[in-house]
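Transmembrane and coiled-coil domain-containing protein 6 isoform X3, pasting as requested.
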Amino acid sequence: MWSRERGRLKPLRCGVEELRCRRREREAALRKARREQQLVSKRLLRDEALEEAEEGCVAVIFGEAEIQQFLRLAQRGTEEKEREGALVSLRRGLQRPETQQTFIRLEGSIRTLVGLLTSNRALLQLEAARCLHELSHSEQSAVVEACLPATSYLLTYLSGHSSDFISPHLTVLEALGYALSQLLQAKEAPEKIIPSVLGSTLPQHMLQLLQPGPKLNLGVAVEFAWCLHYIICSQVNNALLITQGALSTLGLLLLDLAGAVQRTEDAGLELLACPVLRGLSNLLTEAAAEAVGRQLQLRDERVVAALFILLQFLLQKQPSLLPEGLWLLNNLTANSPSFCTSLLSLDLIEPLLHLLSVSNVVSVLVLTVLCNVAEKGPAYCQRLWPGPLLSSLLDTLAFSDTEVVGQSLELLQLLFLYQPGAAQAFLQQSGLQALQRHEEVAQLQDRVHALQQIALHG
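Structure tokens follow.
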């Protein structure tokens, strides 16, 4: 970066290292903020068919006596329908915060639900799991904390299946996966829950559930992909997950998802894409990921091609998830010349530029990926320039968003440093006027001045 010192300008080569260091520090801070935000993103899973059937049923606030009666009937009712009906009524009541508070105050209430999970009655298991599901989704920290003792029982139950980890009652498994995913977001989870999970056989079972193939069930896979994502976010022991195959499993699932969105119009694939993209993105920031990188099936153009297929799918179906795919692309290209080469050899720069019009958040991420490519040196900048990039940068410099403009300036600086003639082409396209719009913006003044100096004096 150019900067004034005793009326003189610092050498360019020093500026390249300073720019690189600044980008790495900013990205590290952004990744930390993303992990923290993702750890508190509560989700509510409810069966749409079930909700339609219960339409018009108002969730009632229950007192201690009523809750105790429901639990007694669920345990000792003379008929299965009576037992199931008691749990259905309890589940509806647990949608109310007042009932949740009363429930957790009752001694043995959580233990009773867990006991019903271990019964050999599928419908009772399912309703007990749904009750835990309602409790684990509570916004009240005391309710979530009361569920924590259930974690060890959940681990025993979930880890106790056959090596295939395929329950005949997939709906039960899905509901339990959801309940566990909510508990993994509790503030106590990194100390009290996740070490127990990592010390059990559950991570290997989860990875088996996420293996592409005919046994993969979308609903179950979604819930355990979120479980895996929250464990990764906690950073308790991601090196262990990588050695158990988490990175390669998620990579293969990414390739499979790209194929699936081309073959089918089924809704719901984006629900699995989100935790898979997040999990991969966060794992790739770990040192252990680099150490085992050569052993993974992530070192070829298939991953980049698959990611762009998913980006196009999300653009059509769920544009709000585009940042997740672009964060993964950012992490793939940040330290890897091979992935940057794949972007160029597959002619994916122009499709990437088309995303600049989606939103400011997406624009910043697109420009960050392009900076990753340009940062790799003259050979990469030569392939980026000029093409459609110059006109796209002139457009983004007209944005009012300071972060978009700042990232555009950073990309221009790299291009000016590494690509002879880029500054002259920029001048010929009224580039100085584009820069002058931002001369009075405090956060951008230094970079605007540096680029003006390079463009005018070389």
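Note for the archive: The longest helix spans residues 12-38.
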